Amino acid sequence: MSEQVHNRLAMVRAERKVSRQSLAEAVGAHYQTIGYIERGQYNPSLDLALKIAEYFGLPVEALFSLTPFRPLTDEAYGRNQ
Fold first, then answer.
1. Which among 41, 33, 35, 34 has a CA at the least distance from the CA of 5?
2. Which of 53, 57, 81 is nearest to 67 (CA)?
């Protein structure tokens, strides 16, 4: 069984004002695949995860993780989990 890959894709995509369709076209995926990834219903391949990270100019670990991300408010205000 494959482990769930947690992601911040929807947040980053919204912050950058990028549509699912635009991102999908840029990385060679279907726009529904982007939605499945955002909802945690599909784990991206390594190739796709790297393409998405490159598109946003971020390290892959800023977008994808095997452990849940801490809430941004915790990170911004230094709260412990």
1. 41
2. 81
Neighbours of 52 (CB within 10 A): 25
> How many whole angstroms separate alpha carbon 59 and alpha carbon 45?
15
Residue 75 is classified by DSSP as: H
Residue of 20, 5, 80 whose CA lies nearest to 55: 20
Six-digit token string for 79: 């709260």
Q: What is the pLDDT along the chain (81 residues), one digit of tens a residue?
A: 468 899 999 999 999 999 999 999 999 999 999 999 999 999 999 999 999 999 999 999 999 999 998 887 777 787 665
* Locus of tokens 């990170």: 75
Q: What pTM was estimated for this model as a whole?
A: 0.85
